[in-house]
Design goal:
The protein is α+β, with helices and mostly antiparallel strands and about 150 residues long. About 30% of the residues lie in helices and about 25% in strands. It contains five helices and five strands; from the N terminus they run E-H-H-H-E-E-E-H-E-H. The protein has a five-stranded mixed β-sheet with strand order 1-2-3-4-5, with helices on both faces. A hairpin with a 4-residue loop joins strand 3 and strand 4. It is globular and about 45 Å long. The protein starts with a strand and ends in a 16-residue tail after the last helix.
């Protein structure tokens, strides 16, 4: 059975019994950056972004169990004066990856960004990850490389 995909609030995601395990899975697969330390979800930040209208949450449920999520952020790129969507915090449990759950979350994110008038949707993927392989096959193109330099403590 396919997961049910719908927009929701951050609090709906966070109250799901499986949310902690999904966040841990996301952290493990998202390309660890040592300087960021262990994952710690900042619910207040997500709620503030929702309240400001710059973030929309998407959840994937198999019955009453949360099996995936994504968050679409919307912001203007000042140098281009264009609204752009970004799919962040995008994760699907390994047990729910067959059957198109990730595709459905991505498509929901695309609809949200398009309906809000965004010029497009950006998605970050760890180098050589499954998502890094899939995105070019479905019309996404690599436009930049993301680099990180830690400053220590």
């Amino acid at each position: 059975m396919a997961a049910a995909i719908r927009q929701c609030t951050f609090d709906e995601l966070a109250s799901a019994a499986s949310f902690g395990a999904l966040c841990a899975g996301y952290a493990a697969e998202s390309g660890r950056i040592a300087e960021l330390g262990e994952h710690k979800v900042d619910g207040d930040a997500y709620r503030a972004m929702e309240a400001a209208g710059v973030a929309r949450c998407i959840g994937a449920w198999d019955g009453d169990q949360l099996v995936g999520f994504g968050v679409v952020t919307l912001s203007v790129l000042p140098h281009f004066s264009k609204l752009i969507g970004c799919l962040i915090s995008f994760f699907v449990a390994a047990s729910a990856r067959k059957g198109g759950t990730g595709t459905q979350i991505r498509e929901a994110a695309e609809r949200i960004a398009h309906e809000r008038g965004a010029a497009g949707l950006m998605i970050s993927a760890p180098a050589e990850s499954r998502l890094d392989v899939i995105l070019p096959r479905i019309g996404y193109r690599a436009t930049n490389r993301l680099y990180f330099r830690g400053f220590g403590e």
